[in-house]
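User: Please go through the entry that follows and flag anything odd:
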Amino acid sequence: MLVIKHATIYDGTGKKLEGKAILVKDGKFEEITDDTNIPVSYQVIDAAGKVVTPGLIDVHTHLGVAEEGVGKEGSDFNETSSPITPQVRAIDGINPMEKGFEDARKSGITTVQVMPGSANVIGGEMVVLKTIGHIVDDMVIKSPSGMKAAMGENPKRVHGDKGKMPVTRMGVAARLREKLIETQNYINGDQNERKLDLENLAKVINKEIPLRVHAHRADDILTILRIKREFDIDITIEHCTEGHHIADYIAKHKDVRVSVGPTMSTRSKVELKDKGWTTIKTLLDAGISCSITTDHPVVGIEYLVTSAVHAIRGGITEEQALQALTLDAAKHIGVAHRVGSIEVGKDADFVIWTGNPFDLRNKAEQVFIDGKEV
């Protein structure tokens, strides 16, 4: 049992709390109370002059499936043998001992979504994990948390260069539609034998999980919104690099959430030529729920807060930045009932910072997952 007192608390819901104490019991937030009302049996952390936030969340990573400093042996995030691979699962490729998990914890990141890459039109299932542990099954918060799909340049390049469909953006959209239709037929009982790929995609058709779609260019974003309407499925837009060009149109789709990033990377291909730090402000101003991502290892996960600082320079407020890394991020990946804010009953994932986390001279001094310092 633990109590944190005398800190400035930003709870992730938009509230700033002074003169309050956080009580933690059995790995959960037990109570937020006056810091003069502390049970004598609790271990006390005096965080005077410090800042407490919820544990941070990166909604779009390849942590543990695209290992750093390993090469081909640690590259397990793109099953490029086929452009359509809904049967694969990121959880089966994750190395939980990869150093990136430690980097995440040291940076105040307590939850991540790990997904396949964007080489395929349909890339496979993803998973949401805590960033502590050596047994990946014990780290899971939600599995599966979505199905990966990709529009545009990547599937065109990877498979088109082999002379296989898709060669064009038309081909990408067509392959996606074909597989969704095949899945609808499977659900309707048109096949007698089990098909793992179709079983997994049926979760998308049945709205058990969203299709999380890699899309940089505005026209690719429009295509996936069109497909969303055709099949009445839930989607999130991942990257949304040119979303600022069509923000008002995206906003008409009230249930669509967006992750923005990795904006700290270079404009390394044509799809990224309009990348900039004002995109998230434009999207937020249009009323779209946004998260910030590193797309680790494209940008190291330890630079998630740095990315948010650049977004602040681009015009968003510190409050918006914190919510993009906490509660809005938790909502994006479907785990807001567990993490993302300091509220009674939620997992006690939180960070004690030496000061304002958006002042890069400060650091995550103590990080807690499920009420235990890590």
